[in-house]
Amino acid sequence: MSFEIASSDGLPIRGNLDVPRAPRALVVIAHGFKGFKDWGFFPWLAEHLVTHRFAVCRFNMSRSGIGERPESFDRLDLFAGDTYSGQVDDLITATRFAQSKTGALPTFLLGHSRGGAVTLLAAASIRRLAGVITWSAIARADRWDEATKKRWRADGFMDVVNQRTQQVMRVTTAILDDYEAHRRELDVLAAARRLRSPLLVIHGGRDESVPVAEAREIAGAAPEASLLILHAAGHTYNAIHPLVHVPSQLLCAAEVSAHFVAAYA
Predict the structure, then answer these.
(1) What one-character DSSP code corresponds to residue 161?
(2) Residues 204-240 pLDDT 10s
(3) What is the number of other CB atoms lying within 10 angstroms of the CB of residue 22?
(4) Rounded to an integer, what distance in angstroms lies between the CA atom of residue 27 and that of residue 47?
(5) Residue 241 in this model has a pLDDT that exceeds 90
(6) How many CB atoms neighbour CB 157 within 10 A?
(7) Which of 7, 163, 225, 265 might form a disulfide with 11, Cβ 3.0–4.6 angstroms?
(8) Are 17 and 29 in contact (CB under 8 A)?
């Protein structure tokens, strides 16, 4: 089923909730920076997890930049003001909605890239949380050097290019302000240390966006963590958009994730 719910700011959170017969668990998937629920492997991953009898919720963050058209960044005004705190809140909101539709199932969070950090930051607020899975996750919210921050503040914005669409996507200082105002709450490694459920950390050995060392930091911080490094995998497990075939690295990440959910459900 498709759904649309309101964020705490009154913005639409659009998503999909797929529920097999007699589901064993609920998995909520969080996309990363410049990601969206219909990018590349996300629909396939949801279908794959459903075959394991897991209910799966995937959704667009309210400030992802995706509007009513599922694959178009036509709300760059919203994208410009995105924040970590807003994404954490969106994940909590979407998870509570999915839980309300699926009963008292054990709940798992699965996040890719920035979404992996967001799942860790949101974990303490999720009822019936049974486990967290990160794919290619960042270990810290502060990604910018001091020179970049100074220039960003002077200009009032920073432009990033979407390599797929060639769009220039402007980012205001909202995310920087949010981080500086909530450093403690947005400490990813501290959130991992506080985690009271099992953690599975998956990362590509050839990740071109997030160093594999960050996966080791996350796994090393958590009280109960398993770490899988797929040495031939890049940031997206060698998948592209649209997904024309399923790379073996992606299949491996999905299967290990499914077995993790089954083990702790």
Answers:
(1) E
(2) 999 999 999 999 999 999 999 999 999 999 999 999 9
(3) 6
(4) 12
(5) yes
(6) 12
(7) 7
(8) no
From the number of C-beta atoms within 10 Å of its C-beta (0-12, 13-18, 19+), residue 104 rates as exposed
Q: 237 and 204 in contact (C-beta within 8 Å)?
A: yes
| Token pair belonging to 200 | 């599975």
Q: What is the mean pLDDT of residues 61-88?
A: 97
DSSP 245: S
Q: Are 102 and 18 in contact (CB under 8 A)?
A: no
* Per-residue pLDDT at 163 exceeds 90: no
What is the token pair recorded at 222? 């958590």
Only one residue has tokens 């060392």, namely: 213
Q: How far is residue 87 CA from its own chain's centroid?
A: 9
Distance CA 156, CA 221 (A): 35
Quick one: which of 56, 60, 62, 30 has its CA closest to 44? Answer: 56
Distance separating alpha carbons of residues 71 and 67, to the nearest angstrom: 8
Largest CA distance in the chain: 55
Cis peptide before 12 (omega within 30 of 0): no
Q: If DSSP codes are grouped into helix, strand and coil, which group holds residue 252?
A: helix
Say how many C-beta atoms besides its own lie within 10 A of residue 224's C-beta. Answer: 11
CA dist list (Å): 252 to 2, 127, 154, 229, 264? 28, 29, 45, 11, 19
Span 47-63, average pLDDT: 98
User: Are the CB atoms for 247 and 237 separated by under 8 Å?
Assistant: yes
Among the listed residues 113, 112, 34, 43, the one whose alpha carbon sits nearest the alpha carbon of residue 73: 34
Q: What is the distance between the alpha carbons of residues 57 and 99, in angstroms, rounded to a whole number? A: 10
